[in-house]
Amino acid sequence: MSLAFRNCIDTATDYTHGGTKYDCGNGIIYDGVADFINSISTVKELVFEKQSISMEQLLKALAVDFEGFESIQKKCLEAEKYGNDLSGPDSVAAEMLSYIAINTNDCDSMYGKLMTGILPFTAHVPLGQKVGALPSGRKAWTTLTDGLSPTGGTDINGASAVLKSVAKIPHDLFASGTLLNMKLSPELMKDQRGTVHLMSLLKSACSLGVYHAQFNVVDKETLKKAQQEPDDYKDLLIRVAGYTAYFVELCPEVQDEIIDRTEQESFGEQRVAAGCS
Hints:
The protein is α/β, with parallel strands linked by helices.
């Protein structure tokens, strides 16, 4: 990387040791953002607003990974979730991510102010192995959600609702970048109309201030077959987390995470009356 910067070459100083003309500081990359948003939103909704469970009950359930507390986990899973253009979790996203970014960016590092970003590079898989059960209903030691994408299976109001929720996060405060992954059903893209709708979706993303969105157009069954019969799917390319890779060369945990991502079957919004399950 240092060879790409003239000042690093002229001064024989590494990029990571202040060799660039303009110091950009060290960086902190955040991951599992949807798990964070959904957890705080769930506590706010169930403990403080609806008062359907107590904080003490929730903490006990989390301590034992919901074993024996399945009814509490059910309530947590059914609480409103980020990615559906719902004011509850989206207000948490706006407030908490702004707070995190502003306070991180205000910190000094060895090479200038700290920079923040939300992009996983598959770090959400090993990080999840260190994180216990969460109020969102997530079980302990399972993979975290990638980047700022909604948790797989919880964004059920359509692709445009996902964009509206993601747009609540102040992307301009995360100078190291933000990443939204979306998986579209091949049925959506089978004709010219699908292409037109995707272009409209991309224009909406730009208008809403979503900086980085990437798409996979592949169905779950194809991915499962590729996992079971890798020799037949050696040419299957997948956008992972800011980069492209051959699906069959990814580790099983990352493959499973991609398979579990929501397969959007609609560009428009499909409102639901209750929470997501």
